[in-house]
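Hi Y.,

Following your request, here is the sequence exactly as I used it, all 229 residues.
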Amino acid sequence: DTFGGIQVYVPQDMDYGGSHLSQGYQTMDGAAAEFFLRTRHIYADSDLGRLRMQRYFYAALFARMRSMTVWDIAKLLPVITSQMETDLSATELVSVAVSMLKISSSNIMFCQAPVYMGQAISYNGNSTVVVARQETADLLNEHFRENTGPVDASQLNIAGDDGLFDLSGLTASDPSVQFMGTLNEEISDAQQTNNIDGSATTDVYDTATPAPDDSTDGDSTDGDSTPSE
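Below is the corresponding structure, written out as tokens. Let me know if you'd prefer a different format.
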């Protein structure tokens, strides 16, 4: 609501508990965004499906922020600081936000921890998700450890796949690595292919979100166009 609504691409119709979102671009207020971000029972893989769906919101939020001026960002500070504790000054927070907006979406990566999950895994009668130790080490070593060297799975302080649960016959979930720039391209392709909302040629999301020049102070309008009707 603070942003005046955020235009998010919804990749499928969503219906649950009396709430509904149609496939296509939707301008979401706080209530709609909460429904979009929290719903999980409509997906076959529940929590994992919800995590993948949330990426569309993060891409939309990033695109919306890139269209803002430094003054727009500064006006959000009271809302942001009311939800966090920090020793950074207001000036430093604005500087961090502006620097972040200069990052290309092609360099922003989504992923999720590989896990074992299913009705067969429970603890004290509760369904349990177990982080997959070796697969997590593989994910870290491939994408996050280039400056510090590889980590062995045995070094990870992860409980669950060390004999506490019977994981025989189960396969760890995929980390689902995806870059925001690639997701934006998929969104644009889906929009043009399906002609959703009549906008066959206008991209709401930039496909790569190139980093703006330093002279712009992050005041870019990339990704904030409106689909033609």
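The radius of gyration is 20 Å.

Thanks again,
Q.
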